[in-house]
Fold Cell division ATP-binding protein FtsE.
Amino acid sequence: MIEMQDVTKKYPNGIMAANGLNILINQGEFVFVVGPSGAGKTTFIKMIYREEKPTTGKIIVNGVNLSSLKNREIPHLRRNVGVVFQDFKLLPTLTVFENVAFALEVIEHHPKDIKKRVMEVLALVGLKHKVRMLPSELSGGEQQRVSIARSIVNKPKVVIADEPTGNLDPETSWEIMSLLDEINTQGTTVIMATHNREIVNTMKHRVIAIENGRVVRDEQQGEYGYES
Ligand SMILES: Nc1ncnc2c1ncn2[C@@H]1O[C@H](COP(=O)(O)OP(=O)(O)OP(=O)(O)O)[C@@H](O)[C@H]1O
């Protein structure tokens, strides 16, 4: 359901952030993407939601070949691919409710349906009681919960997370991981780039290691495999 065929990515400065990626990720998998700093993890993730285009090669997401995707079709792709960032990327002037509703409203739902769906996902992430608050009034872990709620509000087939626990303490990181695990258990594919050794080694999911833009390891129930 996510497939990369001979994908390369050369940035204008000449850096090859992807150098012959061939990867197949099936619906419902939970995949950790690991590797040293600068290895190409973020580039890999950005190419899946078309934030970056590959220089050569083919990427297929949910049956859609991203190379032939027109710009006007990108919003449709983004609704099927939820994205979670290390720094949350919430809109600071919008409330918790509005941040989540904003992601949904683009599909022109009835206001009553919007409210129902937003409250449903905020309940799932345990934040029903903070709907009127602004992101600045929340802890880091709570902000990440809002961003997870936003990522799943359109019931995407895939959630991709780039270092979602990078700004969080260990306990809060585990709370976020159990949420992502729950989302995965319900059938959503989860792809997560991380430097967190303990999380990778404890959760025993598929591990894809990238170094210099190449897959150097791809193991089921894999280990983090680096020192830190
Ligand atoms: N927009 C860009 N323009 C030019 N070079 C870039 C750009 N984005 C990333 N790079 C380079 O591509 C390489 C891969 O970067 P990327 O961010 O994908 O690595 P990463 O594995 O996510 O690193 P980290 O673990 O530090 O987040 C790096 O050498 C980086 O400097």
Notes: The longest helix spans residues 170-185.
